[in-house]
């Protein structure tokens, strides 16, 4: 019951944050193709049709193949999968020499959890595809000595009203032997049983679920 209450609170916090927090780059999804050289992209919520080589709002369509489209923004490329959740194109990169796949098994309640680390500090993660960013309770952030108070302060709406939170950039997030750098996170007041692995981390991966196994593979 305590875990469910914590997850519900976190979900409410993320719902409020979604309207206020801005990712490092535009959020882009691949929603269809028009012939062999045109793609329907949704850029920051706005549908746009791009031909290969065309640039709109700083996003360039590099190539298309089957159900995939490769785009570029600010010198960074990202492979988009048809129908997948929007991903933000920013400066998050995999650490040199790191692994590229994470395999998780569902635990109690069907949740995917794992031990990992943030900036070298061990913590417990829970995959949450409904969370905008990696979400960390303030108590856990203090334990890991994160300097979140130096981050941008935002207000987010919860069931108990508006509460202050802080946006931070994590130097590294590691799960298993996969380490990804420069990940956006939010530190929220109170205690949480897990750090939520939200979409600022998950959109760096292609996700595939088979029964009770979740496979995450780095896109680039």
Keywords:
220 residues; mainly beta; SH3 type barrels; Cathepsin D, subunit A, domain 1; 2 domains; eight-stranded mixed beta sheet; four-stranded antiparallel beta sheet; 52% strand; Aspartyl protease family protein; Retropepsin-like_bacterial; aspartic-type endopeptidase activity; protease
- The CATH topology of the largest domain corresponds to Cathepsin D, subunit A, domain 1
> What is the strand tally?
19
Level of helix content? 10-25%
Q: If you compute it from the alpha carbons, what radius of gyration comes out, rounded to the nearest whole angstrom?
A: 18 Å
Low-pLDDT runs: 1-23
Protein name: Aspartyl protease family protein
Pfam families: gag-asp_proteas (PF13975)
Organism: Roseateles toxinivorans
InterPro entries: Aspartic_peptidase_AS, Clan_AA_Asp_peptidase_C, Peptidase_aspartic_dom_sf, Retropepsin-like_bacterial
Description:
It is a single chain. By secondary structure, this protein is mostly beta strands. It has two domains: 27-87, Roll (SH3 type barrels); 98-219, Cathepsin D, subunit A, domain 1 (Beta Barrel). It has three helices and 19 strands. The chain has helices at 2-17, 138-143, 199-202, and strands at residues 27-33, 38-43, 46-51, 55-56, 59-65, 68-73, 76-81, 87-88, 93-94, 101-105, 113-118, 121-127, 134-137, 152-158, 161-175, 178-188, 195-197, 205-210, 213-218. The strands form four sheets. Strands 9, 11, 12, 13, 14, 15, 16 and 17 form an eight-stranded mixed beta sheet that branches. Mean pLDDT is 79; it is low at 1-23. Residues 1-20 form the signal peptide. Keywords: Hydrolase, Protease, Signal. This is Aspartyl protease family protein.
């Amino acid at each position: 019951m305590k875990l469910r209450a914590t997850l519900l609170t976190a979900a409410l916090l993320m719902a409020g944050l979604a309207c206020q927090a801005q990712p490092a780059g535009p959020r882009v999804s691949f929603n269809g193709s028009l012939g062999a050289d045109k793609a329907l992209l949704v850029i920051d919520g706005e549908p746009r049709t791009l031909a290969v080589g065309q640039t709109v709002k700083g996003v360039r369509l590099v190539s298309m193949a089957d159900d995939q489209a490769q785009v570029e923004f600010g010198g960074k490329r990202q492979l988009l999968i048809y129908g997948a959740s929007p991903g933000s194109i920013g400066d998050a990169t995999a650490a040199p020499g790191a692994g590229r796949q994470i395999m998780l098994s569902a635990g109690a309640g069907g949740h995917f959890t794992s031990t990992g680390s943030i900036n070298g500090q061990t913590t417990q993660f829970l995959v949450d595809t409904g969370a905008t960013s990696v979400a960390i309770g303030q108590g856990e952030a203090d334990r890991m000595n994160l300097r979140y108070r130096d981050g941008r302060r935002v207000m987010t709406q919860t069931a108990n009203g508006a509460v202050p939170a802080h946006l931070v950039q994590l130097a590294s997030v590691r799960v298993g032997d996969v380490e990804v750098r420069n990940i956006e996170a939010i530190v929220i007041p109170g205690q949480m049983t897990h750090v939520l692995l939200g979409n600022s981390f998950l959109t760096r991966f292609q996700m595939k679920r088979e029964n009770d196994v979740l496979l995450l593979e780095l896109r680039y």
